[in-house]
Amino acid sequence: MTTRTVKVKGEQLSFLAHADSAEQLLTGTDTGDNGTAGENFKVKGTYLYWTDNNGDVRRKEGTLTGGSRTKGNITVKDDELYYGDDDGDERSATQAGSLIIRPDGDVSNALLLFPDSGEDPYQNIDEVVADDDTTYLYWENGTTAYKTGRFTAAAPSSTPGTIVSVEIHARIKHTTGVGSETARLYVGTVAGSQTFGQVSVAKDNSYAEYSSTFTTSPTTSVAWTWAEIDDLMIGVALRAQGAGKKCSCTQLWAVVNFG
Length: 259
Known about the structure:
By secondary structure, the chain is mainly beta. It has 2 domains: 3-95, no CATH class; 99-258, Jelly Rolls (Sandwich). It is 2% helix and 53% strand. The protein contains 1 helix and 22 strands. The chain has one helix spanning 226-230, and strands at 7-9, 12-16, 23-26, 29-34, 42-44, 47-51, 56-61, 63-68, 74-77, 80-84, 89-92, 97-101, 103-109, 112-114, 136-140, 147-153, 163-174, 180-189, 194-202, 208-214, 232-238, 246-258. The strands form 5 sheets. Strands 12, 14, 15, 17, 20 and 22 form a 6-stranded antiparallel beta sheet that branches. A 5-stranded antiparallel beta sheet has the order 13-16-21-18-19. Strands 4-7-6-5 form a 4-stranded antiparallel beta sheet, with no helix packed on it.
């Protein structure tokens, strides 16, 4: 199959899979530039560019495959579209992927810090490798009320595809007791709306990973955009009901899934 099989269709690139000739559609990000409607695609830097049928220039950054390919070469294998970037690295424009984004600043925080000095709140939960009881945020001896920390998250260095979902992950523990306690994992934008998913935290005095998945933006109620990810806010709300009870969060991060 040659690159003649790949063509502009509306706002997308269309190509036929090798195995069953099923049409595959590739969505790209509008760059804000204009070109000649339906203009052929090209490789520039790490991106595959094309001009859609409305004359808008779009691009898609493919996922590195670990292989090599001649700069600018575009081909279809099975149901994947591959191209060679400017460095001669092979990229798949159709493989799904994900980005991990960690806190890089404080929006607001009502949680307690351990240790209680030397770091900003977000720095107690931004580790790539969890340090558990070395640094964390917590609440203790409380009532039914939640205490919440909200944080900015580092903007991604690339916008490689259409966002499928955003996951919020946290590493949390609660002191030993009967049953479980609830925590809330927040997501939204600093300038827009926020929402949360509620998780049940085991009362076993052991850290475990908890997560919630959000397929739409709480600001627009439709699919996430990369502009919203650039302004991402993530957070965690903890409570520990009763004397001697304590709930801690040692790590918080977001996973942006794209296709």
